[in-house]
Amino acid sequence: MGKTLIKRYWLTLVSAIIVSVNGYLYWRYVGCGVYTYLTISSQEQKYK
How far apart are CA 35 and CA 27, in angstroms? Predict the structure, then answer.
């Protein structure tokens, strides 16, 4: 039972691991700057 699940969903598992690692690395080394949120909020106020 266990091996058939791994064989069936191996691509999904590998993709989930790769996406998780990429997301962590982006957060760790690039991150979201403080001014990013200020820029977005000021642009939203212009259009309202």
Answer: 16
DSSP 1-48: -HHHHHHHHHHHHHHHHHHHHHHHHHHHHT---HHHHHHHHHHHHHH-
Domain boundaries, the chain: 2-47
Tokens of 2: 């266990």
Q: What is the pLDDT along the chain (48 residues), one digit of tens a residue?
A: 667 888 899 999 999 999 999 988 888 888 765 555 555 555 555 555
Counted residue by residue, the chain has a size of 48
Q: What span, in angstroms and rounded, lies between the C-alpha atoms of 3 and 37?
A: 46
